[in-house]
Amino acid sequence: MADTDTPVVQPKKKGLTRRQKCSLSRGAQYAVFVAAVIAFAVAADWDRLRNQFAQKAIAEQMFPEVITLALKNTVLYTVTGFAVGLALGMVIALMRLSSVGPYRWLAGVYIEIFRGLPALLIFIFIGVAVPLAFPGTEIPGGTYGKVALALGLVAAAYMAETIRAGIQAVPKGQLEAARSLGFSPARAMVSIIIPQAFRIILPPLTNELVLLFKDSSLVLFLGVTLEERELSKFGRDLASQTANSTPILVAGLCYLLITIPLGFVVRRMEAKAQEAVR
């Protein structure tokens, strides 16, 4: 008599494992990428691109002024704008954290306005509205001062929020320990909290420097002399003179000489910060 209680073993369904599915998906993505690169390489008219963007004789005309003048001015505009933005951003961040209501309100209004307005409008405001509102008033430093102020006003809104987040990320026990040692609130903030906050926010601040480096191209809306031109203005002027886009490409490569190393520094800082947390 057959045993009716014996369980029936179902045959295993054959199919791809999860690892095999992932490998297949990854392979498909690589195939799509390679196909797109090949299609672009075949479809592009490389001779026309070379004639318009890679004229060696025109590129040689840009040196050494593209480095000694344009790149130097770009770095100077960026560094001064970053310094103004950092100082102003620190003040706004402390106002944002203040126990005084009007300070918090003013800081919040500033941040919302200057984060919402395009940087171009800030440059136009500094170059046009300020002289109209205050006749006879000159911003110290001429064009360099105007650019530093415009970039600083834009950067301060973002830096203020970054600094505020960094201060709040410091454990509250640090402030309590400082107060128990007899530190005043202001001294504890300056000596204990802010240094720790800056170690936390150093990567995003460096990233802000990269963004300011590119925003410095808006200086052309202030009206600059030949000696005050930065990379974008320098490249555009020469491109108009030669009826060729090679100077714009060279100017773009000069931007990369700064932004790529800075980007590498940001990634290294972020990696070290993650290691410190672990």
UniProtKB/TrEMBL annotation:
The keyword Cell membrane applies. It comes from the Bacteria. Gene3D superfamilies: MetI-like. The chain crosses the membrane at residues 27-44, 75-95, 116-137, 248-266. Its main location: membrane. Keywords: Amino-acid transport, Cell membrane, Membrane, Transmembrane, Transmembrane helix, Transport. Pfam families: BPD_transp_1 (PF00528). InterPro entries: AA_ABC_transptr_permease_3TM, ArtM/GltK/GlnP/TcyL/YhdX-like, MetI-like, MetI-like_sf. Residues 71-266 form the ABC transmembrane type-1 domain. This is Amino acid ABC transporter permease. The lineage of its organism: Bacteria, Bacillati, Actinomycetota, Actinomycetes, Kitasatosporales.
